[in-house]
Amino acid sequence: MTQPFQPQPLLTTQANPPAVNPWLRRVLVINLILEIGIVVTGGLVRLSGSGLGCPTWPQCVPGSFTPVPYQAQGFHKLIEFGNRSLTSVVSIGALLVIVAIWRWAPERRGLRRISVLPLLGVMLQAVLGGVAVLTGLNPAIVAAHFLASMVLVSLSAYLLYRVGEGDQPPVALVRPQIRSIAWAVATLGAAILVLGTMVTGSGPDSGDASTPRFGFDPRTIAWVHADAVMLLVGLVVAVLLAVQLTATDPRPRRAWHAVFGITMLQGVVGYVQYLTGLPELLVMAHMLGASLLAVALTNAVLSLRKREVQH
């Protein structure tokens, strides 16, 4: 006869967080804010039809890296050039992440190894943005540009969370089944982001009239996106109830309450923008919400385990 399942006792002790230099934490917070900020400004470029405000890359126009008075693009050149300029600011923030971690946490080898990833990601983003311009805002390239930003937002959130942990091997705070569902939530969240780019790349916010589209029926792909969000809400509720009933550490409960709140708000904004004809401010709020959801999901998955400080 098989033995009945005996659940592992839940951990009740909390890890002592490592001492973190406040300037290191500030640098990581600023880096995260900058990564989210460039997502929003990128949305402004798209919504204003300014994606080709600088019609070439890396120069804005042939012979000049900055806009020139004779450009036919009008105010669009200023919006697109402003977004390109912000990339330099984000690059500086990513560079400061490397400096800060090596300066104030030199003994943490794991953090040192991944400290270069934000800077490498920003460089990749710049190249993808350039390819998007050179291909006339090909929707697949533009989608990849946005999704890479979401990866950078999650990576920045990971670094900020990770710096507040120890470096010992992770120890689960919840049952394996709960962690499996949590990873399913994160995977579905990523799929929803992909569907969101397909909705945008098929609808009126793809750019101006000459911008190529994916070719999907906008109404159909929007409803597929909405159905996936409904499934996400159900899974989030399942994880939230599970951690509420079983987790003795308060961190998973706080983190999954945040995921639930942001998911519901995102759903409301998404439906309202669809029913009201996609007003620009709501679309930008939806993009901001996507970034915040990426942060919340990253924190929520990480909250299901802890790392002790190495002595």
Summarize it:
By secondary structure, this protein is mainly α. It is 66% helix and 1% strand. The model is unreliable at 1-15 (pLDDT under 50).
Task: Set down the secondary structure blueprint.
Layout lengths: L21 H26 L28 H29 L4 H6 L2 H18 L4 H24 L8 E2 L3 H25 L17 H29 L3 H26 L4 H23 L2 E2 L5
Antiparallel strand pairs: 1-2
Helix pairs in contact: 1-2, 1-5, 1-9, 2-4, 4-5, 5-6, 5-9, 6-7, 6-9, 7-8, 8-9
What this model shows, in words?
With 311 residues, the protein is mainly alpha-helical. It contains nine helices and two strands; from the N terminus they run H-H-H-H-H-E-H-H-H-H-E. The protein has a two-stranded antiparallel sheet. Helix 4 (117-134) runs antiparallel to helix 5 (139-162) and helix 7 (218-246) packs antiparallel against helix 8. It is flat and about 65 Å long.
Helix content: 55-70%
Integer average pLDDT: 88
**Beta strand %:** under 5%
Return Rg in Å: 21 Å
* Total domains: 2
* Count of runs of 4 or more consecutive helical residues: 9
What is the count of β-strands?
Answer: 2
